[in-house]
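Predict structure. Input: aldehyde oxygenase (deformylating), 619 residues.
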Amino acid sequence: MGAAFLSSWPWDNLGIFKYVLYGPLVGKALASRAWEPASPDRWLCLLLALFALRAFTYQLWSSYSNMLFLTRRRRIVRDGVDFEQIDKEWDWDNFLILQIMMAATALYAFPSLRHLPGWNTGGLAVAALLHVAATEPLFYAAHRAFHGAHLFARYHALHHSNKVPTPFTAGFATPLEHLVLGLLMALPLAGACAAGLGSVGLAFAYVLSFDFLRAMGHCNVELFPGGLFRSLPFLRYLIYTPTYHTIHHTGKKANFCLFMPLFDRLGGTLDPESWELQRKNRAGMDEAPDFVFLAHVVDVMQSMHVPFVMRTFASTPFAVRAFLLPLWPIALLFMFMVWAWSKTFIISYYHLRGKLHQIWAVPRYGFHYFLPFAKDGINDQIELAILRAERMGVKVVSLAALNKNEALNGGGTLFVNKHPDLRVRVVHGNTLTAAVILNEIPKGTTEVFMTGATSKLGRAIALYLCRKKIRVMMMTLSTERFQKIQKEAAAEDQQYLVQVTKFQSAEQCKTWIVGKWLSPREQRWASPGTHFHQFVVPPILGFRRDCTYGKLAAMRLPKDARGLGSCEFSLERGVVHACHAGGVVHFLEGYAHHEVGAIDVDRIDVVWEAALKHGIRPV
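Output follows.
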C-alpha cells in the first residue's frame, strides 16, 4: 500500500537545502528593499521576521527543557531523549515552511492584508472570541478524528511515535495535520481582518502565543505552581499544563484539547487524574544517580556543544561550525558568568541496566587548569561535587580528563586522603584508558616510541609493554624519573625500557605513543607510515599526510544504554572516553576500592576483560 495523501513532506530528500524554499520570499524582499518603511513590500520583512521568531520560540523552549540543572526534578517522562528520536525530529520545522507558504498565498490573494495597521485593540477581542468559539472546538474535533483507527495509522501515529515529548515534538507531524492546524490558527486572524480590526501586532501576538503554548505543552517539564488550580479551580478548564498534554501523549485516550481543557470536559475525554499528577510533578522528585562522570568544559566553542544550547548540534560529534561564530561572544560572556558564580551542574544522563548515569560538569574551561592561582578553586569544585554525590548515595564518581590531573590532585588521591570514609568510589578510569591504548598496538610490534613517558599513563604503558618484551623508547629529559620507573620492572624486563632525549632516536620506529603535545616540527622525525597513538589532551593535530593518527582512547557503551542523546566531545554517537567507560566498569563490577593515583599495571588486563564482559566494546 502506498503512502497516504499528504503523509510525508515533499522536500524530505532535500536535507538542509529545504531552506532554499524560503528563497523566493527572501529574494523578493532584498530586491524591493522591503526593510525600508516606505516600501510596498514591507510585509515580506514582517512575514519573515514572524517565522524566524516562531522558530526561535521553539528553540528557546527546547533549551529550557534541556537545562537539567533547572528542570530535572520536574521532568514528567523520566527517560532521556535518544539519538533515534532526535533524528526523527531533526526536520521538526518543516511545518514553518508549509505555513509561510500558506501565509504568503493569503497575502498575495488579498492585497489589503499587506497594509494592516500596527495595532488595533478591538481585533484582540475578536480574535480571542473566535479562538474560543471556533479554533478550540474545531481542533478538538479534528484531533479526535485523527485518533480514529484509519487516520491515526496513516497520519497521527507519527506524532505519537516518540516516547518523550519535547518542544520539537510539537512540529513533528504530517503535512495534512499541519495544514489543518495552520487553517485553524488563521481563523481568529481572518475573522479580525474581516471585521476591519486586523493588525500586524495582533498577527505577531496571536501566532507567537499559539507557538509558545504548543511548545510549552510538549516541553516535558511541569511549570505551573501546584496550588494554583486548587486556589483558582476555574483555571483548570482555561489552560492546559505540560502534565495534562503528556497524559495525552502517553495514553492517547484522553486530554485532546488544544489549550483549553474545557473542551475535554464537554467531550467527556478529560482524565480525572490530570491535576493530581500535575501537582505531584510540580512538587518534583530528585532521582539519585548511581554513577556520575565528572567532566569539564574544553573551550568556549565546545561550551556550545550541549543539549541546552542546540540539541541537534550536541547529538553530533563536536566540530567548529560557521553558525557558532556569531554565538561566540555570548558563549564567552557565559564563561565569565559560570567562572564567577556557578557550581558543578548536570549536563545529560542515560540509563544502563536500570541504573541512572549522569554527566556533571565542573564550571571550568581547559585553560583554567593551567593557571596556578586557579588550582585550589578547581579542587574545591571537584571536592564539593564528590561530597554532593556522597550525600546522594552515588556509587561511583569518575573523573574526566584534567579533573584528575596529577599536578592538580594526584589523580584523585587528594580527595580520598582528605575524606578516608567516603562511601562513593572515586575513579580516574585510567586503567581502562591504558588498556585501550595497549590493545590498539598491533600484534607483532617489537618497538615503540613514547612521549609523556613518565606520566601516570606513560608509566603504566611502559611497564606493561616491557613485560611483553617490547622495547619502549621513553622520551624524557629526567633520568631520575626514568630510572624510578625502570626499577619498578622485573630485573629481566628492565632492558626493554630505554631512555631517549631526542626525537631523532625514533626515526625508524613506526609506532609512536603520544602522551605529550607534538609540534609539526617534532612530528617530522617520524618515518612515513607511522601511526600515532594518543593519550594527550587535547589531541595533536595531524600534520603528516603519510602517517595515521589515532583518536583519544574511547569505547562504545553497551547496546542496552537508553536515553543517549548527546556526543561526548568529538567522539561518535554512543562512544565515550575510556576514563568514562572505566568508571562504568568500576560501577558494574561493584569494585570496593578507589581507583586513584598510580595505575596498577596488574589490573590492566582484568579491567579490559571486565569491560568486554559487560558489552563495552572497542571503537
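The first strand starts at residue 291 and ends at 296.
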